[in-house]
């Protein structure tokens, strides 16, 4: 309990053992302050940052930049803003001793309650043949609570039936984002979507957060599987898609994720991979996927088939999420060399990773993760193809090899 007199204005600070900070500001004679405190109760919001000064209350918030390789420097300690001195909330009683009132020059040190948040950026490079309509991948970035991201890969085979696969993947991501942010998912599902970025507040791909996507917004759901389930049930469009949603729960200090198909993510801590999702496939190059059943498909995988992940996180951990256009062309060890060293570097890192994936995709001689997995599944070239593709390399004759990247949306 501490009191600082500034003229005839008094500031009463009451600190409880759970570190919530309560304050009472009033203009009155010092002897009547104790009686007034018993009748008046003021509480500040959940996360408060107050500097070491009894005269000024300030708030600070780490700005979240939001923009399919999605890179996050996710876990910055982020103090949320302090409330105004006149903000009224719950019930607290206190008495002020004369001895405390006499300490006019006492300086009070206030507690700071910090919250982990993700700072995110995204880079998207559509397939060169699909640039006219923006490719078939989709993603979202939300600044709600601790932050959330999602990626989806529209199945390109639908184009042969005159369907734009992007409409399904973009709607799927938009509804998943709306679910996490506590918005009306049915209304969102019925609206149109333009552009690969399906974030609620940045449909043009900008990094401005949604007006509703604040840390204090009601109805926030930390449940990636439920987000995918709701999005799947409400996306009534021709098409199908794989999907991955990753969400930070600041209260549990944990990363929670759900993945269906061959999109995925890695978590990097201190330069090493702390977690990596596993692709889920029916067979090679045929991943599990969502589709509108029974309206447009004969069968579909569901959110119950999605793999769930839970990982305690630390400040400084980095998350990289992407569709198969990333993971089919870039090895994880290559990504480690391109990761940002500070939160400000996430934009540049996302661009570098996406461009590396595009270079590998166009390189016919690159021994990509895609061709390596194909060989592991027994899909290597027969001997006669290797003979037909014999080449001279470094002065030596070498049999042809099944190599090359996989051109795709990234």
Strands, helices and their partners?
Elements: E1 2-6, E2 9-15, E3 21-27, H1 33-39, E4 69-79, H2 98-101, E5 114-123, E6 137-142, E7 148-154, H3 165-180, H4 185-190, H5 224-234, E8 240-249, E9 254-260, E10 264-269, E11 272-276, E12 281-283, E13 286-287, E14 290-291, E15 307-312, E16 318-322, H6 324-327, H7 332-336, H8 346-361, H9 369-376, H10 383-388, E17 391-393, E18 396-398
Helix pairs in contact: 3-5
In total, the number of strands is: 18
**Mean of pLDDT:** 77
**SS class:** alpha+beta
Q: What portion of residues belong to β-strands?
A: 25-35%
What oligomeric state do these chains adopt? Answer: single chain
Describe the structure.
With 410 residues, this protein is an alpha+beta fold. 20% of the residues lie in helices and 26% in strands. The chain has ten helices and 18 strands. Strands 6, 7, 8, 9, 14 and 15 form a six-stranded antiparallel beta sheet that branches. Strands 5-4-16-10-11 form a five-stranded antiparallel beta sheet. Helix 3 crosses helix 5. The radius of gyration is 27 Å and the shape is globular. The protein starts with a strand and ends in a 12-residue tail after the last strand. The N terminus is likely disordered.
């Amino acid at each position: 309990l501490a009191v600082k007199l500034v003229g005839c204005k008094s500031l009463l600070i009451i600190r409880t053992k759970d570190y919530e900070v309560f304050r009472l500001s009033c203009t009155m004679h010092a002897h009547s302050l104790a009686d007034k405190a018993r009748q008046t109760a003021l509480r500040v919001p959940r996360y408060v940052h107050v500097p070491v000064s009894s005269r000024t209350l300030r708030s600070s918030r780490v700005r979240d930049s939001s923009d399919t390789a999605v890179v996050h420097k996710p876990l910055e300690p982020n103090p949320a803003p302090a409330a105004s001195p006149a903000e009224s909330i719950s019930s607290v009683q206190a008495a002020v001793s004369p001895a405390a009132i006499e300490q006019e020059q006492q300086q009070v040190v206030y507690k700071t309650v910090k919250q982990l948040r993700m700072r995110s950026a995204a880079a998207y490079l559509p397939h060169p043949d699909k640039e006219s309509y923006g490719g078939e991948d989709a993603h979202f970035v939300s600044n709600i609570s601790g932050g959330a991201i999602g990626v989806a890969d529209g199945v390109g085979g639908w184009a042969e039936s005159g369907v734009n696969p992007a409409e399904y993947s973009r709607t799927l991501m938009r509804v998943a984002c709306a679910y996490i942010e506590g918005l009306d998912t049915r209304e969102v599902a019925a609206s149109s979507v333009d552009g690969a970025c399906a974030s609620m507040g940045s449909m043009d791909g900008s990094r401005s957060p949604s007006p509703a996507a604040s840390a204090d917004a009601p109805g926030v759901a930390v449940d990636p599987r439920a987000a995918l389930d709701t999005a799947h049930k409400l996306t009534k469009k021709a098409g199908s898609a794989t999907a991955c949603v990753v969400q930070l729960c600041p209260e549990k200090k944990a990363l929670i994720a759900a993945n269906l198909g061959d999109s995925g993510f890695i978590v990097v801590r201190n330069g090493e991979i702390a977690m990596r999702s596993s692709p889920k496939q029916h067979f090679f190059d045929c991943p599990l996927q969502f589709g509108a059943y029974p309206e447009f498909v004969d069968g579909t995988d569901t959110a119950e088939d999605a793999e769930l992940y839970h990982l305690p996180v630390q400040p400084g951990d980095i998350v990289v999420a992407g569709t198969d256009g990333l993971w089919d062309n870039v090895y994880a060890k290559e990504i480690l060399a391109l990761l940002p060293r500070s939160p400000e570097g996430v934009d540049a890192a996302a661009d570098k990773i996406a461009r590396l994936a595009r270079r590998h995709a166009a390189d016919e001689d690159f021994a990509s993760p895609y061709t390596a997995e194909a060989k592991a599944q027994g899909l290597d070239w027969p001997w006669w193809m290797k003979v037909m593709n014999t080449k001279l390399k470094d002065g030596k004759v070498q049999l042809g090899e099944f190599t090359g990247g996989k051109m795709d949306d990234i």
